[in-house]
Amino acid sequence: APGASAIGGASAADRVPAAPAAGVHEATGVLGRTTGGRAVEAKVAPESEQTALAAEPSAPPPPPPPSGLCAVAASQAAASSSSTGPGVIGGSSSISRERERVVSNLNGSFRDLPCAADSRRKRKYTPRNPYTHFDSHGHAAYPMMPTRNYEHPDMFEKYDHDTLFFIFYYQQGLYQQHLAAKELKKLSWRYHTKYLTWFQRHEEPRETGSSFERGAYVYFDHDSGWCQRIKGDFAFEYQYLEEDPAAAES
User: Fold this and answer.
1) Which residues pair with 218 in a beta bridge?
2) Per-residue pLDDT tens for 206-237?
3) Which residues of 66-101 are buried (b: 16+ CB within 10 A; e: fewer)?
4) Is the pTM of this model over 0.70?
5) Using CA atoms, how far apart are residues 151 and 176, in angstroms rounded to an integer?
6) Please, what is the end-to-end C-alpha distance for the chain in angstroms?
7) C-alpha angle 238/184/247, rounded to 5°?
8) 190 beta partners
9) I want to staple 24 with a disulfide (CB 3.0 to 4.6 A). Which of 20, 156, 160, 243 is the partner?
10) Residue 214: exposure state from Cβ atoms within 10 A (0-12, 13-18, ≥19)
11) pLDDT digits (tens, 9 = 90+) for 162-191
12) 199 and 219 in contact (C-beta within 8 Å)?
């Protein structure tokens, strides 16, 4: 009868469907139902497949939308990828242009890599525009060679501190540097070989040991200010104390 179940209720003609492909019934199983007096196939997966589908874990929830800097970076990446046009995956052309710019900058910086000599200050003075003025007789209007009096130790006793420091730092390797250092030692200045700076006690040391002394010191700042500064708490280690030039000569 119409509307009855196809299993046992429909006619024999309605219960016989078209011949299915070989193995369909074995693989899926067939249940019949009637719609308007006609049997219709309903393929149902076997129990093993249903168990496997039920055992499959559900898909993880989508990640939360980015916020803050991540949102800005994501929007910029989306804009760059969309601007590359179709056929470009992930904006590879934009990345390649950016990489080319970075490599070009790195090559430029490598060409201008500083050498070891750039870290050393040029001490000896060299005039930018050397010029010699001659008188009407063709002789130099001023002495071309320094007088020998400037190499006499008695002359250095008349110089002030600023002149002695200038000679020491800008006449390196010359006899004048030795005389300037000798005169600074007479004025109670001591040269620190680690910091390459002259120090003088501002007061008596607050702490004295076998290898150092700690206290307030005056030091000459020749790098940034060309002036004397005070360091309130400084430990002067004796291993960095330069020997007396007179002792070194003997």
Assistant:
1) 200, 230
2) 999 999 999 999 999 998 889 999 999 999 99
3) eeeeeeeeeeeeeeebeeeeeeeeebeebeeeeeee
4) no
5) 6
6) 135
7) 60
8) 199
9) 20
10) middle
11) 999 999 999 888 899 999 999 999 999 999
12) yes
